[in-house]
Design brief:
The chain is of the alpha+beta class. The chain has 2 domains: about 50 residues, 2,3-Dihydroxybiphenyl 1,2-Dioxygenase, domain 1; about 80 residues, Roll (2,3-Dihydroxybiphenyl 1,2-Dioxygenase, domain 1). Helix content is about 15%, strand content about 40%. The strands form 3 sheets. It has a 4-stranded mixed β-sheet with strand order 1-4-3-2, with helices on one face. The radius of gyration is 16 Å and the shape is globular.
């Protein structure tokens, strides 16, 4: 598929959680991700049009390493979504109102540079790191 088509296929990501109930509360209720199929060992969620699967695997949860990006200690293992600026701000407001503790507070990184973006990092209840980001100019998503 070419980038010119401007249609991206959904990705699939599986990740470990310590509790399916906590995953349902966080991804389903707080983030508003509709639940798909599930079993006693996993749950599918619609994560902004992408399929993420929380697998019950308590021994594998959490992030352990960081890497410096524009002065921030970014969790190496993380996933997330690129939103519009309005969606990003709404998500930041909702998470702040819910009392979520941020690893990296909502802010704009690479100010005045190619790839300027709004970003925030936070953990799910199992310690998986998520990044929500947004670009005022989406064409700079892959800009060098």
């Amino acid at each position: 598929m070419s980038v010119a088509e401007n249609v991206l296929p959904p990705f699939h990501l599986a990740f470990p959680v310590h509790s399916l109930a906590a995953a349902r509360a966080f991804y389903g209720e707080l983030l508003g991700c509709p639940e798909g199929r599930s079993s006693e060992a996993w749950i599918d969620f619609n994560f902004y049009g992408h399929q993420i699967v929380a697998h019950l695997a308590p021994d594998e949860v959490g992030h352990r390493h960081t890497s410096k990006v524009d002065g921030d200690a970014v969790p190496v293992r993380h996933f997330g979504v690129v939103l519009s600026m309005a969606q990003w701000q709404a998500a930041a407001d909702k998470l702040q109102q819910a009392g979520i503790e941020f690893i990296i507070e909502p802010h704009v990184r690479f100010k005045g540079e190619v790839g300027e973006q709004a970003t925030m990092f936070f953990l799910d209840p199992s310690g998986n790191a998520l990044e929500f980001k947004a670009f005022a100019d989406m064409s700079s998503l892959f800009a060098k």
